[in-house]
Amino acid sequence: MKRKIFLLLCWLWIYPVEAQQLTDPKLFAVNLDEIPPDVEKLSDEYRFKRSQYNWKYEYRWDMPKQFDDEFADAIVNFGTVEKRIANEDEESILRWLKNLPPKYYPYIGPLLHTMRGLSGKVLDLPGIKETKNKFPNRIASVFEDVPDIEFASPAMYIYLMPEIWGEKSSIEYPQPQYEKLQNPHKTKINPEFVAKILQNVPQEKFALNYKPKPQNLGVRHYFANENTPLSGADVQAFVNTGAGLKNFIKENNNELRFIMLDSLVRYQDEKNGENSTVAFLKSAVNPCQTIARKVKWLKQYKAFQSAIGTQGFGLEDWAYICDKTVKAYRVYHMPIDYIGVINFTHKGGYEKALRRFGYSAEDLQTVHYHHAAFVQMYTSTSGDIDAVKPFAAELSQMFFDLGVQYGGTPLIMP
């Protein structure tokens, strides 16, 4: 429930900001040279640290005939004294609420009042306090005739907001001003320019049933690293690992094991001093290196190697070739409007807009990281993109077969 609230507030406040070092590859780097931890011990530690409960007597067969005095006192004290368990997301929720227009509060407040562990610091916030047990006065017209809609769960109130359904908002925002053109714009065609295009891009190459001539795929890089440029031979070899990757993830519950490892990987990075947002976004920026990291953690090197080794890959050089291929593929299929968003981000447009609303430095830094991840997910070189182009259709089919996520790790972003 806490995660739902946090994601809900993020959804309402989704204005990206320019990061200080948007293209710094070290920001989301994956350390493939780390010594893998003991996953079982790390799992126990994670569960104990993140839980609000004491797991001392977890299993019936481990339970002694009598509780020790210290644990017995803790139980009695907890049962007889009113004590609020601290909510680790409370400060974040408070900051997000203060930055939201109060018109959104009726769709959020009732749900907050049902959450256990939140103090008056959040629940007594002006505008939130008044929403307790109250149904929103303003709902989308599509729901006005739904019988007993007022008995819907508070968790559903957000979907009743008229703005979500495209209805006019009562919240007024400043409208951008545009300069009107004095004269209608006319497109002039330069015959010399057209002739030069036809010379460099012959029309016959765009004819129906045109089959390109076999091309030189370049050098196959067998010891690739993060600085190795892609060649067509590298991409072809990666495409040929598709069937092996699909078989690997379906064997021995590997897919479920990989997914369950996500939280432990982030927890380990946070323990090592990494920002929690950066730890969360690393798998989106460098998905294949994250997969290689999970392979090492789960000691599945031999099984995974059998899936990729037929193409001459080792675990780490496969990860680098895969990440470069994925990023080049993303850029090749990138919607045209993404280009404007990325350019606007580089110019600091979002940052200037948010600063005017008085967001805290911590909030701005979080959004910096999100935008840095977005930029790096769609960053590639012209050489890498050229290497991927001939295999675009095969890569699309490969990713379709593997799924948008491979063991919880996002390969292709929407």
Task: Give structural notes.
- It is a single chain.
- The chain contains 19 helices and two strands.
- With 414 residues, it is mainly alpha-helical.
- Among the domains are: 102-165, no CATH class; 218-410, no CATH class.
- The longest helix has 18 residues, at 254-271.
- The protein is globular and about 80 Å long.
- Residues 6-20 have low confidence and may be disordered.
Outline of this structure?
By secondary structure, the protein is mainly alpha-helical. The protein contains 19 helices and 2 strands. Strand 1 and strand 2 (409-410) form a beta hairpin.
Topology:
Layout: H1 2-12, H2 39-50, H3 69-80, H4 90-98, H5 105-112, H6 120-123, H7 191-200, H8 232-239, H9 242-250, H10 254-271, H11 276-285, H12 287-297, H13 301-308, H14 315-332, H15 336-346, H16 349-356, H17 361-377, H18 382-388, H19 392-402, E1 405-406, E2 409-410
Antiparallel strand pairs: 1-2
